[in-house]
Design goal:
The structure holds 2 protein chains of 2 kinds. Chain A is an alpha+beta fold. Helix content of chain A is 48%, strand content 17%. By secondary structure, chain B is an all-alpha fold. Classes of the chains: A alpha+beta, B mainly alpha.
Chain lengths: 763, 65
């Protein structure tokens, strides 16, 4: 146990196997060849968060024989490892790297690297900020000299130097705005960047013209500092999204990249998922996910389909049964035959549904853009009006032009451009600290507006982990026997049994696991069996399908000794979180793919009156769409592959970090901690952010109401403009930092969390 | 006025030097892991492995490959 990383779950597996680690072949696929026999791999290690973690992991990796370099990146929670590849005989097993990290007590997994171009944009923006900052500081210096009374020739010289600095800086740093403004205009609408680009270009042009004609006023300083402020807002916004995106891509990938192909002659070869064709035979080991839709050829096992369709109870499968891509093979090895290509699998079907269910995201227009729709025509009209009015009034069109520029600069959406991003960056930072990641700012705007929350059951309201809730007899001896048997299995029910029963002290020499049925062991007193009723008591009656519980029976020589009942445990703090949502005025309901009895029982426990069960992905999407057609603004919280279309159909959506890849991609928010408190927490922050944004708009507009007449009457010199602009921006930023800090979601200790997962020995 | 002829270029040059230094730092990956750098300062060893061979601190991912 380290200071911070929870011990890995080796409590019930006497041997710390490679169960759940990425396979060697998969690691090799994910690594890059650096030449001279070196290979590099990037692993995501979400558990690192302090200096001790860095030292421990780097130390462990560097002590491996073939590792050349290892470096932990704490900001992105990633480890880069470079190792020497041996040749044939002493080829290095890359899995050793993941195993070494796991041995330190951290989970390591592969992630899908995001497009490389994204990091480039962040650096481009930072460079632009640096250049704009450099230019604005120097120009400000020169402007101060002009304001303090530099005369004729000196003033012209300073203006010329300012122009020389400002020109390239505007082209280099302003290109983001020009591009976006041009795109908006080409498609016939406006956004915030249109008035910005226009003000910058016009004011630079007019200032240059003034300089050439030995004019008294030039606006270079205002122009460049305006751009500088706006770029800061833009960069913060990008960094916020970047951080969330990289954290989300760093979560474990649940869909396998490849599978072990079994040739006709029994040879085995690792293939990428894309290269698997219909009819190929694949070997699926225990602990692996199903790569493509397939049919079982040989072998029996238990399959966990909770992430595919929300069924909470594991399902026993044997030859001839069909499996969907994404399901988890728990106990036995299988040989399966692919019946669909990866791109035609169940997952692909879901993705096409997702695309069809274009939700709130596509239709939603961000607050800033809606404000710009009103704001930019007004500003441009005001500038034009003052230009025409002054021109008509004294016939001095040059003076009229100067006043028009002053209006444009004074009203320039500096404060407006900062009003939204700064608030959202602060809010995203608060959310991030509470373990919730936001994909973009508009998600918070949308979340603040919801009135209905819809939850998936398995894996969202519950953990997707069974918990022992009842037993038919209390004989400690029998329970110790059950624990002794269950300790040898990875089946979720066995793990829950070990975690839920305190009795210990019985031991078997050998336990055989019969995948899909249960466990069996023999000693002097007879043959014990633990598993489904039909297997433990072959003579007994078969259980009905109508109970909300899953049952496991212990028998000796076919006679029942004890029965244990399990149910899917609700998440920590689920009912408290739901109460908070009710108090916030939301209507709640459950949409689940699981069987009705299980859903009914949970709905009753949590006090939710509206629920639907046994829904297909299509059914969930339609249910969400129906609510929205009725005028509701729906928040969907879900984790499965079957939730993904509904997640994209909803106005705004959330998923836990344990969700399927496709679900995480569809969601606007991803929460990392186990507690469901993340939902009300995100709602509070988003509503607070919404309030602050409206305040900021009010401040910016109030400031404009005062400043615009001043500019239109011709009293705005460059000095006044610079002061007014800076103060308005500073006021808005300071106001944004007032975001109240609600209590972050309760983070239960790692120990409690793990014991929920049945991963800590009950000593 | 004559002094300005010297002073302004010097001021701009020094400012530009600072800008260039920042851009260089950005390009060489020093902003890739700000949080990690804060902790690494506190470490005693210089990444010396058990074999005693000093390992160079590699630059973080350069996406050139």
């Amino acid at each position: 146990m380290s200071c911070c990383a929870p011990g890995t779950d080796t409590a019930f597996s006497p041997d710390a196997t490679a169960y759940g680690l990425p396979s060697s072949e998969e690691m090799r696929l994910a690594s890059r060849d650096l030449g001279n026999g070196l290979r590099q791999i990037d692993l995501s290690v979400p558990g690192v968060h302090c200096g001790a973690c860095i030292v421990k992991i780097e130390g462990a990796l560097r002590s491996l024989p073939d590792v050349e370099r290892a470096r932990v990146n704490l900001s992105s929670r990633r480890v880069t490892v470079v190792w020497k590849e041996g040749d044939g005989a002493r080829a290095v097993d890359p899995q050793a790297i993941a195993a070494a990290i796991r041995a330190c007590g951290y989970d390591a997994h592969l992630f899908s690297p995001a497009a490389a171009g994204e990091d480039g944009l962040r650096n481009d923006l930072i460079r632009a900020v640096a250049v704009a900052g450099f230019a604005s500081v120097n120009i400000m210096l020169l402007s101060v000299s002009v304001w303090s009374g530099a005369e004729a020739a000196t003033r012209d010289l300073f203006h010329w130097i300012s122009a020389l600095i400002a020109g390239p800086a505007l082209v280099y740093a302003g290109r983001f705005f020009y591009r976006s403004a041009w795109n908006a205009l080409r498609h016939g609408h406006t956004n915030m960047d249109v008035p910005i680009s226009l003000a910058v270009t016009l004011s630079y042009g007019v200032s240059l013209w003034e300089t050439i004609h030995h004019g008294e006023h030039a606006w270079f300083d205002a122009t460049v500092s305006l751009l500088f402020f706006l770029l800061i807002g833009r960069t913060l916004d990008h960094v916020m999204r970047d951080r969330a995106r990289s954290a989300i891509t760093g979560l474990a990938r649940l869909s396998p990249r490849g599978a072990m192909l079994v040739g006709g002659d029994g040879s085995r070869e690792y293939r990428r998922v894309e290269e698997i064709s219909v009819g190929d035979r694949l070997a699926i080991a225990a602990g692996e996910r199903i790569p493509v839709d397939c049919r079982v050829v040989t072998g029996t096992s238990d399959i966990d389909r909770s992430i595919v369709n929300g069924e909470s109870a594991p399902l026993a499968v044997g030859p001839g049964e069909q499996l969907e891509a994404g399901a988890m093979n728990i106990t036995g090895s299988l040989v399966v035959e692919a019946i669909a290509l990866a791109r035609d699998s169940f997952l692909a079907e879901v993705i096409s549904l997702m695309e069809a269910a274009e939700g709130g995201r596509a239709r939603y227009r961000r607050i800033a853009d809606r404000a710009a729709q009103v704001y930019s025509p007004v500003v441009h009209l005001l500038a034009l009006a003052s230009f025409l009015a002054w021109g008509a009034y004294d016939g001095d069109w040059k003076h009229a032009m100067l006043i028009a520029v002053a209006v444009l600069i004074i009203t320039c959406p500096c404060a407006l451009g900062l009003a939204v991003p700064v608030v959202q960056v602060v809010a995203a930072g608060r959310l991030f600290a509470g373990g919730v990641m936001v994909k973009d700012g508009s998600a918070m705007e949308r979340l603040a507006a919801i009135d209905t929350a819809v939850f998936d059951k398995t894996g969202t309201l519950t953990l997707g982990q069974p918990r022992l809730v009842g037993r038919s007899n209390g004989d400690p001896g029998h329970q110790a026997i059950a624990v002794a048997l269950a300790g040898h299995s990875r089946h979720p029910l066995s793990r829950a049994l070990v975690a839920g029963l305190p009795e210990r002290g019985y031991d078997f020499d050998a336990v055989t696991e019969r995948p899909g049925e249960g466990l069996e062991a023999t000693d002097d007193s007879g043959t014990y069996r633990l598993g489904r009723r039909a297997f433990a008591c072959p003579a007994g009656a078969s259980p009905t399908d109508e109970t909300p519980y899953t049952e496991v029976v212990l028998s000796r020589d076919g006679a029942e000794l004890a029965a244990f009942r399990f149910e899917d445990a609700p998440r920590a703090g689920a009912s408290a979180a739901l109460d908070r949502l009710r108090n916030a005025g939301l209507k709640l309901s459950i949409l689940s793919g699981d069987r009705a009895p299980a859903v009914a029982r949970l709905a009753e426990t949590l006090g939710i009156s509206r629920w639907q069960a046994a829904l297909s992905p299509q059914g969930k999407t339609e249910a969400v769409a129906a609510l929205q057609t009725a005028g509701a603004k729906v928040l969907m919280v879900g984790d499965g592959i079957n939730d993904a279309p509904a997640l994209s159909a909803a106005h705004v959506s959330m998923a836990p970090a344990t969700a399927a890849d496709v679900g995480r991609q569809a969601a606007d928010f991803v929460f990392l901690h186990e507690s469901l408190d993340a939902v009300p927490f995100a709602l509070d922050i988003s509503r607070g952010a919404g309030r602050l944004i409206r305040q900021n708009f009010a401040l910016a507009i109030g400031y404009n109401v005062i400043a615009v007449p001043v500019a239109m009457l011709g009293h705005a010199t460059p000095l006044v403009a610079a002061i007014a602009m800076s103060t308005s921006s500073i006021i808005v930023v300071v106001n944004s930092l007032r975001l109240r800090r609600p209590a972050p979601p309760a983070q239960e200790t790692a120990k409690a969390h793990l014991s929920d997962l049945g991963a800590v020995p009950a000593t | 006025m004559n002094t300005l002829v010297f002073l302004i270029p010097i001021a701009l040059f020094l400012g530009g030097l600072g800008l260039a230094a920042f851009l260089w730092a950005l390009r060489s990956g020093q902003y890739e892991d700000i949080e990690g750098a804060a902790w690494r300062v506190l470490e005693d060893d210089d990444g010396v492995t058990q074999q005693g061979a000093p390992k160079t601190a590699d630059r973080p991912n350069n996406h050139l490959s």
